[in-house]
Design a protein that fits this description.
2 domains
């Protein structure tokens, strides 16, 4: 059995929010609450949920970009929380991230060639100018950009081309883990498919592991080997992609899947969708017991008092629900 590349154990992230008015007391906001998972080399883990569920906070916490309140993130045999700044910076060549906005994540004053080659300046400063340019051009070809575009600036590219440049910059150091934080949400449907196919191609060729954060389950289904479903900072369900889409156990997962349209008018007309009522509660005052109970169609009195633990109704399939 392959040893996990990254192991996240009971990870929690909390923030202090200023109170209202001059003498208002600050409050504690729990953005991520006791989340655990593992990811192996060459695997894609999809993280899904509505806006505000803690997906992006979790992705930044596992990269040590924001402080962790409790729990631990283990990279191979190293606890990232014990590393000093120098050691963590050295480790970053193995862990890269792609952000949501392709244009905003690129420096408008640098050419695309220099942007893609910039990580080489940091981690391989002894490279000659010619070798640096050769590596950048090679990476541009790999992601579907022509090398003769290297002298252009980001504002001369489309959104899809900018995201290809972001992927090239992240992959030029051949990292072991790539975190995609809503990496295709700002793109058109056809461009989304191209970027997803590019990520899958790079994974086949390099064996890179991917954490793919998205609210679009149709996209997650295409790329993920396993899927983690979050709601209000907690894990609702964690399962292999095929199992989760064929047999979702948690009511929240079922509602998310019902909301995904299918290109079949007859099916859409006949299906009985589970629609969630109300809005997500404030993370400043989460519900007692099960955090999903205020919107759950099968909630019972027990859900008010007892927090459901992650259980395994079947091997490798975990769900946090009393009545799944």
């Amino acid at each position: 059995m392959t040893e996990p590349l990254m192991r996240v154990d009971d990870l929690s992230v909390q923030f202090r929010v200023a109170g209202r008015g001059l003498f208002g007391k600050s409050q504690k906001l729990s953005a991520v609450n006791r989340v655990s998972f593992e990811i192996s080399p060459g695997e894609t883990l999809g993280i899904v949920g509505e806006s505000g569920c803690g997906k992006s906070t979790l992705s930044r916490a596992i990269l040590n970009l924001i402080p962790v309140t409790d729990g631990a993130v283990h990279w191979e045999d190293t606890n990232l929380g014990t590393l000093d700044k120098k050691s963590m910076n050295a480790l970053r060549r193995d862990i890269q991230i792609i952000f949501q906005s392709p244009l905003a994540s690129l420096n408008p004053r640098m050419t695309i060639g220099d942007i893609i080659a910039e990580p080489l300046d940091v981690f391989e400063p002894d490279l000659s100018k010619q070798e640096r340019a050769r590596r950048a051009h090679q990476m541009m070809e790999t992601v579907g950009l022509r090398p003769d575009m290297a002298g252009r600036y980001p504002n001369e590219f489309s959104g899809g081309q900018c995201q290809r440049a972001s992927i090239a910059r992240a992959m030029i150091l051949q990292p072991k883990l790539l975190v995609c934080d809503e990496a295709v949400s700002a793109l058109d449907v056809s461009i989304k498919a191209q970027i997803i196919n590019l990520l899958k191609k790079l994974q086949r060729e390099t064996g890179v592991a991917i954490v793919f954060v998205s609210h679009d389950l149709a996209i997650v289904r295409q790329i993920s080997h396993r899927v983690l479903v979050m709601y209000l900072g907690k894990v609702m369900e964690l399962a292999p992609s095929k199992d989760l889409f064929a047999n979702p156990c948690h009511p929240y997962t079922k509602a998310l899947l019902d909301a995904v349209p299918r290109p079949d008018p007859a099916f859409e007309k006949e299906k009985s969708a589970t629609l969630l009522k109300g809005d997500i509660p404030s993370p400043l005052a989460p519900p007692s017991g099960c955090v999903f109970r205020t919107r759950c169609p099968i909630a019972k009195p027990n859900c008010i008092r007892v927090v459901p633990e992650l259980t395994e109704p079947s091997p490798s399939h975990k769900v946090a629900c009393h009545y799944a």
